[in-house]
Specification:
about 15% strand, alpha+beta, elongated, 5-stranded antiparallel sheet, 5 strands, Alpha-Beta Plaits, 6 helices
């Protein structure tokens, strides 16, 4: 087939192209609506101890290496459903939340990342999680002398950011994909 034959075939069966484009745009819009709008807010927390001693000392958890291991545990705790629901309850926030905890490699820093459908919800949940994990760390040290207590410092306060895929891009990509599929069908019908 020459290019002229292909264009003539597409023109003769343009209704298939139109139907394919309409169906693809409808599916693209449905995808945009189903995914909704998403915001993300992140908090970074540093844990430290004022009297850090060399590894192998008698005080055990006072080594930097062990603090780094604790950071991983705190990041996992912050993302467990039970901890999330308790932190939200204490903050007076209703509903569930999408929360993940992660560590910054080779450091005593961990991140709490919240995804929500609104800026305010993302920020409020991230603040609740930040306060909840700091409170958990403080309460888990009952009876530990002040100089040996783990301290927490907020390095990054939660600021909500728009993280959804661009709705226009999704609809345009669906439109182009629909045209391509419909054009393929037309050419298959023309050249059995």
């Amino acid at each position: 087939m020459t290019l002229q034959d292909i264009l003539a075939a597409l023109w003769r069966r343009r209704f298939i192209l139109e139907i394919g484009a309409v169906i693809a745009v409808v599916l693209g819009l449905a995808t945009v609506v189903a995914r909704g709008v998403e915001y993300s807010a992140q908090s970074q927390i540093l844990i430290a101890q004022p009297q850090l001693v060399a590894p192998g000392g008698d005080t055990g958890l006072l080594t930097q290496q062990k603090l780094n291991l604790l950071v991983g545990n705190y990041a996992r705790i912050a993302s467990t459903p039970g901890f999330v629901s308790e932190a939200l309850r204490k903050a007076g926030l209703a509903g569930a939340a999408n929360v993940t905890g992660d560590t910054v490699q080779n450091s005593s820093i961990f991140k709490i990342v919240v995804h929500a459908s609104s800026k305010r919800r993302a920020r409020d949940v991230a603040v609740a999680m930040q306060d909840g994990i700091r409170s958990f760390i403080a309460s888990s040290q009952a009876g530990v002398p002040g100089a040996l207590r783990i301290q927490t410092l907020v390095l990054e306060r939660p600021t909500p950011r728009f993280v959804s895929n661009d709705p226009a891009f999704i609809v345009i990509a669906a439109f182009i994909a629909g045209l391509a599929i419909a054009a393929t069908i037309v050419l298959l019908l023309e050249n059995p």
